[in-house]
Give the backbone structure.
Amino acid sequence: MTGAGPSLRGPGDVLLASTYELGHAPHGVALPAAFLERAGFRPAALDLAVERLDLARIRRARLVAISVPMHTALRIGLAFATRVRAENPAALLAFHGLYAPLNADLLVRAGASAVLGGECEDDLVALALAVEQGEPLHRFVTRGGTAAPLRRLDHPIPSRGGLPPLGRYARFVGSDGVARVAGYTEATRGCKHLCRHCPVVPVYRGHFVAIPEETVLEDVARQVAAGAEHVTFGDPDFLNGPAHALRIARALHARFPRLTFDFTAKVEHLVRRRAGVEELARLGGAFVTSAVESLSDRVLEKLAKGHTRAEALAAFELCAEAGLALRPSLVPFTPWATLEDYLDLLEVFEARGLLPQLDPVQLSIRLLVPPGSLLEGEPDVAWQGLDEVGLSWRWAHPDPRMDALQARVAAEVEAAAARAEEPFATIARVKVLALAAAGLPHGHVRTLAPDQRRVPRLTESWFC
């Protein structure tokens, strides 16, 4: 039997919390807020990336939904959940986002009553309604790879009224060196590709959904009205639906001709859709983030990236010719990458003048293998068990020098970021560490002219 539960219709009865979303205003709060508001709820928001912990908001809430779209967000989110339980033990906890279903068992043990991933906003509304009706909540626990087929949601405009002003988030810095207010939106969700290391894959399983053009345009328009001069398209791959992407970019440029934007796209899409890339640059594209990951064909094949070393280098060239900077994401430390691969990557980037396009943190990234990953159990990897604290399967590199180098590079990059060091100086020291690991003489990174260092970027480095 079920009975009436607590009302969640008062202001702040539902608290939507975010811990980290790459420095931008959290879509993992804005979109659920819109769904809940449309259903008659009045959620509060808390973004721990830019706000202090507000105990009053926590104690007021009856349902706390924590957005965990990435690994870092989940690690911080677990610590936040502990604080919620201490301050408000009667509140129900929910986790939602890509990393929630991948770690469902851990989150249930951490006190979660609901674990949602994929297209979950309707499910968040259903959860709030079920709580009000006193219904059992076991159906709201989704595990990676077990989600029902994706359904097209009726997307409202994301609601950002409860979030801090855009000016408190990461800014866009153009080639002129001027920092501008940046917004964030999504034109598609999910991805039609099956890269083996990607956390999107176990949840979306090769599917993506397009958000209606008018919804995306209005979302951007509202952010422009709030001061945004640049917008990030946070889709896992903006070019999964190339016609959809170009329609949106054309409409935005017609309405806001001075607005710039950045987006993410696979290498294979960049090299196969050159005309589209060139048009996006003309329409205001400032830079593209692409998961280059490695320059080793052996590693790229293991990750099922869908591109080769030659295609990755070609993507840099064609983007440069189009006037669109390519900022790569990398995973240089995998079980299959060698020290020679690492040195080669540094040498190629230096020789081709690509180092200014690289965030130093990318040189420190070690492969994460979350529960449910397509790499789980790979037979040629030296697995060392599941690290529930680290939210990943542990593995050891066959060459101990690589694990030691990764630890040194990560420490160097973290310390340099803390003192706001110029990225180029950090990369130079990383090169010294890599040469030392190989027992080679310490070299020097080629000097750059000041104008070579002004590659468009966001002020928040890309983390996973």
